[in-house]
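User: quick one - fold this with zinc ion bound?
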Amino acid sequence: MALADFFSPDYPTARARFIEAAEQAGLRREAHDIGFSGPGGKLLSIDTAFLGNPSPDTVVIISSGLHGIEGFFGSAVQLAFLRERAARLDLPSNAAIILIHALNPFGFAWRRRWNENNVDLNRNFLTDYSFRDRDGDYEESRAAYIRLNSLLNPERPPSRLEPYVIKAFAAILSQGWGERARLPRDQRPSPVAITAILRLGLAQLRKTIPVGQYEYPQGLFFGGSRAERTTQYLREALPGWLGDARRIIHIDFHTGLGRHGQYKLFVGDEENSEPARQAATWFGADNIEPWGRGTAYRARGLMATHFASLFGHQRYLCLTAEFGTYSVMRVLRALRAEHQAHRFCRLGSAEYEWAKRLMMEAFCPSSRIWRESTVEQGLGIAERAIEVCSGK
Ligand SMILES: [Zn+2]
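Assistant: Sure. Structure tokens for the protein plus zinc ion:
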């Protein structure tokens, strides 16, 4: 079967294919109903399949769909893995592989990034205390979000005719203008150097928007005000699944950031940190993106950071595998239009469907070349993780 054929057209199909493949491969399964339903009243669940030793020494976790819509890609990699690779694996007797399908089934089913409470789950892994604890870095990105709020969250349905590019351009320019004023006088670009000012603005947006926000429950990138269902479920389930395993590598698949059809493994730590060094040795320095380099962002409430501090860096390494699709502005346009459609459009209306299609293309390009090559690369990452855990 061609790798592009492992992509499913919707969540129920993806879920059914995952379950069928796991059963045919003889894997033990668990399903966690999240208590909401998808289009057509379909059940939404986080499904997990277990391969190998039930009390493992080393574990590879492969998860998908923490950002709902990105599950189309992650699910395709998991299905390809189950169908094409699982039977041929040379897995040591002390190892296990855990496949977690659709961490945000609501977003997957409704073609959104956010969950049933409009929460960005990869900003939700915080302790209750830290939701209220505002450090200096967060204050800076919070102020930037407030400035951008009217651009990001218009209180009306989306429109194909809206001059989004002009609005985005104006917002970036004004952001860049503010950044310019903060630079020492001798480092400021000339007031007519529009490109340099735009660059400053774009760099600032890249640094602030993905950080997440905790002020606007109806806005984009909302990190929540309490631990969401998925967050609670993983916190409860993971320790039991992992038992006394001494080495865990977790690959969490995402899309929408980086160069088209290429990937980076985000470490969620500083360049010189032990996890970054370890990841570079295992997966190749060119494939790793620590904080402060390339498109890697420093966000709060990341799943990777949370479990690394819970289980310890020596034991647990989570790599966020980000596969690039389109430019930041195009991805942001889709997120914004879809959010407007979700809030203000009638289900199935022309505007609603237009925004959802925009979203699908932004996070799961229809190009067969993109699909073939990204699934191939995704399988390569999973196989490398298994080799590492097998001591190779
Ligand atoms: Zn993502």
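One thing worth noting: DSSP finds 13 helices and eight strands in the chain.
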